[in-house]
Amino acid sequence: MPPKLQTLKRLVTLYGVVEEMHSLELQQRTAAVQEAQQAIEVQQQVARSSRFGGRDALMADDRMGWEIAETQRESAGWKQRRLEQMRLEREVLSDAAREQYLASRIKSEQMKRLAEGVAARAEIEEGRRVQAASDDRFLARRRWSDTRERIRDGK
Questions:
Q1: Which pTM was predicted?
Q2: 143: enclosing H helix or E strand
């Protein structure tokens, strides 16, 4: 294997490792966005439950229960707004990771194609060398046979 091809194969491996690294980062960022979305949904459920609890407390004429439910609802709203902000920040990071992954994937594929092209050209060149050597041997043998024939016919 020619040194240039060995170097290219190492680069292909390196680009593959970088692509895998970016893929893992993208998976982590996507998971972080999903985690934030799930936390938002939990806070939405808490707010909904607090509203129902507050309404039940009002119907039972439980002022303290209503205030507790209202406080829980407001707290869930604050948490939900903060989580939404966090989700948006994580989405930005996830989008950047996706772009980085796609770029590294394209570069990796380009390097693979380049290495395959160099390998194909090296294989063709090796085939040509083998054929040329075979042709040289054939011609040398033919000349030798022709020379022998001439010597034999000349005697």
A1: 0.71
A2: helix 63-154
Cα(77)–Cα(51) distance, integer angstroms: 11
Instruction: Give tens-digit pLDDT for 38-51.
Output: 999 999 999 999 99
Query: With left for phi above 0 and alpha for psi between -120 and 50, is residue 2 left, alpha or beta?
Result: beta
- pLDDT tens digits, residue range 95-126? 999 999 999 999 999 999 999 998 899 899 99
Tokens found for residue 85? 């902000």
**Which amino acid makes up residue 57?**
A
Whether the Cβ atoms of residue 29 and residue 104 lie closer than 8 Å to each other: no
* Cβ-Cβ contacts under 8 Å for 32 (sequence gap 6 or more): 90, 93, 94
